[in-house]
Specification:
By secondary structure, this protein is mainly α. The chain is built from five helices and no strands. It has one domain. The longest helix has 35 residues. The protein is elongated and about 50 Å long.
């Protein structure tokens, strides 16, 4: 195809790159959040007061770990099935980016809001969670629409 041609490229040219990006992100994220879970377990095993004494921090860190792990699996599912459903290059790129942004914002929003939080409330970084949730829903909506059209 001519590089100056303004017509959109076929998604089959783009999908392997998007799948590769999503696959790398997904596996790296899964390794990171699984390792974080191991650190949390170690904190419990060694009875670290910084984690055990603050119930809200413990809850937020667990939520970060759980959401990070599950969203990494969502990105991996997208890399294997979702990216191929999207016919347009822009849709595949947008859906992948939205899912990856969600997989960063939601777990980090939970985990980072446990740091130096005021008494009884998470800190202001918890607002990353709803922003990430909106990205997740938008990315899933693009993939779902493509699934119904295929």
């Amino acid at each position: 195809m001519n590089q100056t041609d303004s017509t959109p490229r076929d998604a089959s040219q783009y999908v392997p790159a998007e799948q590769r990006t999503a696959r790398r992100f997904g596996w790296t994220s899964l390794l990171g959040w699984a390792s974080f879970g191991l650190v949390l377990e170690g904190a419990h095993a060694w009875k670290l007061g910084a984690v055990l004494d603050d119930e809200l921090a413990r809850l937020l860190l667990r939520l970060g770990h759980a959401h990070g792990t599950v969203l990494a699996l969502v990105v991996l599912a997208y890399s294997e099935a979702g990216a191929t459903l999207l016919r347009a290059e822009g849709d595949a790129r947008l859906a992948g980016r939205l899912l990856r942004v969600a997989a960063v914002l939601v777990p980090f929003g939970f985990a980072l809001s446990a740091v130096a939080h005021p008494e009884g409330d998470p800190n202001v970084l918890v607002f990353f969670v709803p922003a990430g949730a909106l990205c997740l829903l938008a990315g899933l909506a693009l993939v779902t629409r493509a699934a119904w059209r295929s």
